[in-house]
Amino acid sequence: MKKFIFFYITIISLVSFKGNAQDSKFYVTDKISDKYAYIDVIKTYERIAEKGYKSVDLFKKLGDSYYSNADFDKAAKWYCELFAISNDLEPEYYYQYAKSLLFIGQDDNANQILEKLKQKSGAIKEKKNRK
């Protein structure tokens, strides 16, 4: 009886390990295909923006895409479009926009954005303290 239980547990363990291995291979494949599709998505978003469509979400995605690829010139361009539409953004967008401007040599503009970030974070702290 002990041999049967040991055999049964061994079989279940092997099956579960094999199942986990297949999931990780599938996951790696997904990541590889996502990398290649990522560039096509950026091109698609740019075409949409160039046709005149403007939205906060579109400009966030374009700015983030170029920022994460270290193309700070294009990231600054799309963050500029984003800030032209709305100033009610998460603090990370102020920081990423300012950092992009610093990398392309627009220090004065970057300092202005960082100053707005300080004001915004001060207002957020005030709201939290009131509650």
Model description:
By secondary structure, the chain is mostly helical. It has one domain (19-130): Serine Threonine Protein Phosphatase 5, Tetratricopeptide repeat (Alpha Horseshoe). The chain contains five helices and no strands. Helix 1 packs across helix 2, helix 3 packs across helix 4 (91-103) and helix 4 packs antiparallel against helix 5 (107-130). The N and C termini lie far apart (65 Å).
Query: What is the second-level CATH architecture?
Result: Alpha Horseshoe
Order of helices and strands: HHHHH
CA distance, first residue to last residue:
65 Å
Question: What kind of sheet is the major sheet?
Answer: none
If you consult CATH, what is the topology? Serine Threonine Protein Phosphatase 5, Tetratricopeptide repeat
CATH class: Mainly Alpha
Total strands: the figure is: 0
Radius of gyration in whole Å, from Cα?
A: 24 Å
Helix content: over 70%
| Class inferred from helices and paired strands | mainly alpha
Mean pLDDT, all residues = 78
Number of helices: 5
What number of structural domains do the residues give? 1
Keywords:
Serine Threonine Protein Phosphatase 5, Tetratricopeptide repeat; 86% helix
Give a topology summary.
Elements: H1 2-50, H2 56-68, H3 72-85, H4 91-103, H5 107-130
What is shown here, in short?
The chain is mainly alpha-helical and 131 residues long. It has helices spanning 2-50, 56-68, 72-85, 91-103, 107-130. It has a single domain, classed as Alpha Horseshoe (Serine Threonine Protein Phosphatase 5, Tetratricopeptide repeat), CATH 1.25.40.10.
